[in-house]
Amino acid sequence: MLVPYNRLSEEQKDLVIRVSRENKNLFVEGPPGSGKTLISLYTLRDMVEEGTLRPLLLMYNHSLYGYLKTAMKELEIFDNITIATKDKFFWDLARQNDIQGGGGNYEEKYDLLLTKLLECDLIRSFDVTVVDEVQDLNPKEWLLVKRLSRRITSLGDFNQGIYETKLTKKDIVGQGMMERLTKIFRFHQNIAKLAALFSRTNDDLVSKVSRNSQTLPQIIQVEKIHEFEKIKEILVSLKNMRQRIGVICPDRDLLKQLSYYLTNESVEFNYYPKNIDLRDHDFTSTTPLLISSYSAKGLEFEHVVLFGFNKSSSMVQKLKNEDRLKDVLYVGITRTNTNLYLIKTPDTISEITNIDLFSDDSPKEIDTDWF
């Protein structure tokens, strides 16, 4: 699953060395596919081998926890590292300090819990904290990380901030240092060209890509009643490739319906109705993974199928009203290493139906050169 260390770029290797040796807070910024997570993992490996530091690895969601846990197992670096999703970490910390979240909904309880933790006299429990996808923390969580850590290495991309956290790049950098990764290695230029339509920045995403390819993202038009059938056709065509496949959708109800259909059609797949079960998923598996847009954040697959961006979907309308739809599309498109299939129907939102960069009504031969 992991790119071997000797295949990292010189830019990436230099950052691994700097993060391991610098005694200052460091924020590493980079576009999707530039190797931020790789840097965090190889940095942690160096810390474990040194044996004198007590590190904490913190991330947002259960799927990224499962992905990083799989990668750490591959690198054999599980000893002496605390790895946790941020919510669970702070709930556990609150229990250790006899703090209750109070009444209200989950968000209100959690916010009160963070406020009470900030009022505690917390000790610096970790020599270094590595925060992956740092843009997904909120300001109170970030303040707590600073109190608990002697040194922080944070990695992220504020162009992938699909959560409304109010944390800014200025908050992260503070009195520390900032480095930028400038090259994209994961996907090729045609994927970047499509993703750039949904980018919130004016960065020239295409110019950052190191790989060129004649393979086009496939925007496939089908009737609504044939949508699942088309997805099945794609999954069957990819089966013999034995590469990782992500089927990504913003609407969890639609994902559940797809899981019923594929089960009836005897198509093998993985689907977790409860997000927490993604913590134990084997991310080296080549069985297609059905996953929500939010849970897909931070992950990567050789092949990605995107579907379900429907005008009739209450989740899609919610994302649109909250001005997060572009972010979700940007993240979904950039999860692929090579091949992208974007399914559209007469119910698909105009943001997708109006795309005229690429168009096709049937899968072409997929790109296998990169493998």
Walk me through the topology:
Layout: H1 10-21, E1 26-29, H2 36-50, E2 55-59, H3 62-75, E3 82-85, H4 86-96, H5 106-118, E4 128-132, H6 139-148, E5 152-156, H7 169-173, E6 177-180, H8 189-195, E7 218-221, H9 227-238, E8 245-249, H10 252-264, E9 270-271, E10 289-292, E11 301-306, H11 314-321, H12 325-333, E12 336-344, H13 350-353
Parallel strand pairs: 1-5, 1-6, 2-3, 2-4, 4-5, 7-12, 8-10, 8-11, 9-10, 11-12
Task: Describe the protein's architecture and organization.
By secondary structure, the protein is an alpha/beta fold. It folds into 2 domains: 5-180, P-loop containing nucleotide triphosphate hydrolases (Rossmann fold); 189-353, Rossmann fold (3-Layer(aba) Sandwich). The chain has 13 helices and 12 strands. It has helices at residues 10-21, 36-50, 62-75, 86-96, 106-118, 139-148, 169-173, 189-195, 227-238, 252-264, 314-321, 325-333, 350-353; strands at 26-29, 55-59, 82-85, 128-132, 152-156, 177-180, 218-221, 245-249, 270-271, 289-292, 301-306, 336-344. Strands 3-2-4-5-1-6 form a 6-stranded parallel beta sheet, sandwiched between helices. A 6-stranded parallel beta sheet has the order 7-12-11-8-10-9, covered by helices on one side. Helix 3 (62-75) links the parallel strand 2 (55-59) and strand 3. It is globular. The two termini are 12 Å apart. The model is unreliable at 359-371 (pLDDT under 50).
